[in-house]
Design goal:
Elements lengths: L12 H7 L10 H8 L4 E5 L5 E2 L14 E5 L3 E10 L14 E8 L6 E5 L13 E7 L8 E6 L2
Antiparallel strand pairs: 1-2, 1-3, 4-5, 4-7, 5-6, 7-8
Length: 154
């Protein structure tokens, strides 16, 4: 497999549609979803002004350039928002009884660059705004792509 995040996208259309049922995979976000299959968190970065942005878009929101490409991120950051869900639709790996933690993590790559996720490995009540977190991958089950989650940094 190539290290170029954009290269495998064309060859993986069927695999992406199978791994992410119900998700609209299109040319703008295919590199992001392809990266998830490889346990890589790929976010778009403008090659002109170097601004990162998420969710994936074909145009840089800072300078309007169309010269954007998916790049690996480190996956470390700070919790900027916390929500605890106590009910919701059934999903693999989601426990509402103990509280399912949803967070917005501001990534270290750039101020204001945030990605949604969940924090695993601790009780819901122990997650707070300002906590440092690191990217981890959660296996959901057969035929389902691994999910990018976060754990509290040591």
């Amino acid at each position: 497999m190539s290290d170029d995040p954009a290269e495998p996208v064309a060859d993986r259309s069927a695999e992406l549609l199978s791994a992410f049922p119900g998700v609209r995979v299109d040319p703008d976000n295919a590199a992001y979803y392809s990266g998830l299959l490889e346990r890589r968190l790929l976010l778009n970065q403008c090659t002109g002004c170097e601004t990162w942005h998420h969710p994936p878009r074909p145009i840089c929101p800072a300078c309007w350039s169309t010269d954007v490409s998916a790049q690996d991120i480190q996956g470390s950051g700070t919790v900027a928002l916390v929500t605890i869900l106590r009910q919701g639709p059934r999903q693999p790996g989601v426990d509402y009884e103990g509280g399912h933690v949803l967070v917005a993590v501001e990534l270290d790559e750039q101020s204001g660059l945030r990605v949604p996720g969940t924090v695993v490995g601790v009780p819901a009540e122990e997650v707070a705004v300002g906590d440092r977190v690191q990217l981890v991958w959660t296996d959901i089950g057969d035929g389902v792509a691994p999910r990018p989650d976060f754990e509290l940094a040591q």
